[in-house]
Amino acid sequence: MNKFKLSSWLGSTEHEVVNRINKRLDLATNLETETAEELQVQNYGIGGHYEPHYDCSRRESVFEKTKNGNRIATILIYMTKPEIGGGTVFIDLKTSISCTKNAALFWYNLMRSGAVDIRSYHAACPVLTGTKWTANKWFHERGQEWRRPCGLNQLDQERYVGDLGAPEPRRHLNIRSERPKKMNRKR
């Protein structure tokens, strides 16, 4: 699944900074962090990547295996920007997001009905030059009952700023669905 990637898990009790990050993620996403997984910090060296995958389980029996249910959403924080490469791609959306230092990328893995959102199928592109540091947090179903109620319709979706399913994704500078045109022109 991955190559040349190192990772570590940081609990909120390990350091006050991690606790403050969790509080900010709670405010930014409006999702409960108490039932989320610990913050995972990752380092990708040259060639470091992650194959296409879903962050959530595609099995119906996920509540039997975990006490907090499936991974409802993901937030990925880019702590550094590699010189070349290292972006995140959403395969079915044909969308690439470049690393931007100190930026965060948020998406739902499940529809409101609990079904897997197939648009969340993604990968981390190889780092070609430099290094990439990220942190991510996976939010689980349990604890979100009042913050993100289930939907009656299988197709009920979220609408939020930066929604990859929203019209005109090119309005967002860090989201593009085609190769970028040269930005700097000689005058």
From TrEMBL:
Keyword annotations from UniProtKB, A to Z: Dioxygenase, Iron, Metal-binding, Oxidoreductase, Vitamin C
GO molecular function annotations of the record: iron ion binding; L-ascorbic acid binding; procollagen-proline 4-dioxygenase activity
Residue stretches of biased makeup (Basic and acidic residues): 168-181
Domain Fe2OG dioxygenase, first and last residues per copy: 35-141
Pfam family, one: 2OG-FeII_Oxy_3
Keyword presence, Magnesium: no
Recorded coiled-coil stretches: none
Cofactor: L-ascorbate
Protein name (Swiss-Prot/TrEMBL): Fe2OG dioxygenase domain-containing protein
Organism: Wuchereria bancrofti
